[in-house]
Amino acid sequence: GPDHGHWSYADKAQWQLEYPYCGGQMQSPINIDTNSTIFSPELQPVVLAGCNLDPSEQLSLMNNGHTVVLQLPGSLTIAGGYPQEHRAMQLHLHWGSPAGPGSEHTVDGRRYDGEIHMVYYNPSYESIKEAMRQPGGLAVLAAFLQVGPEDNVHYQPLLEQLDEIQEEGKETAVAGFNIEGLLPTNLGRYYRYSGSLTTPPCYQTVNWTVFNQTVLLSKEQISLLETTLQGDDDKDLQNNFRLTQSLHGRKVLASFQ
Ligand SMILES: NS(=O)(=O)c1c(F)c(F)c(SCCc2ccc(C(=O)O)cc2)c(F)c1NC1CCCCCCC1
Ligand SMILES: [Zn+2]
Q1: N or C: which end of the chain has fewer CB within 10 A?
Q2: Atom 20 in ligand 1: residue holding the nearest Cα
Q3: Is 196 exposed, middle or buried, given 0-12, 13-18 or 19+ CB atoms closer than 10 A?
Q4: Is the pLDDT of residue 12 over 90?
């Protein structure tokens, strides 16, 4: 993809020097102040289509030095909850370390253990490259990962392969599975706002959905995520989250009261 190689979460204050959008007024992630959200009953439940990927389908799982990325087929689409259909591109995770949590968004100042992002693009644009640069060109479905009492079996296809891609740049194959299992069961309760990619180039073209219900993983699964991968210069890949950005007057809508 575009040149993302040399930035890191250590120098996130300098991103805007190289990538001007990162200093913009519609940046992500944000803190969601639940007392200031606006109930919007027109926000319909998110509906996914084509998410039960056949096990014969092989998906690329890669450590790109900043996160673990699962490439998704364009046959997986958002069929409800957005003005028009969007096609899947990839999903990736954000996490912390054994010393603390690592979600990107926060709710009333609370940071969760981790966060999954499913990235989609609006196919009415000529190409993904084009869609990425246009307002409303991208949709990201975000859900918080939280420590719960037992293993989340839906995350095993991803987590059991992490030891295959410990080093930056390593890639492995994952057999198709039900992608919807990675999200909360209730896709009707969510926050919606206009923001950006949380990584350079920070394009301000993302229509964000942050689900209210969290996804529960076991302590062992969260710990595996926090302690297996290495980023650039062989340091542990941890705390790969951007700090929350100012709303600059943006409103956060809620599909629920
Ligand atoms: N939260 S997020 O959605 O902004 C996000 C991150 F926070 C991310 F940290 C990432 S990974 C870092 C950016 C990156 C690195 C390499 C490559 C590549 O080799 O193709 C691609 C991207 C990452 F990939 C994404 N999502 C990508 C943003 C980068 C360019 C558009 C492609 C889909 C979304
Ligand atoms: Zn992300």
Answers
A1: C
A2: 1
A3: buried
A4: no
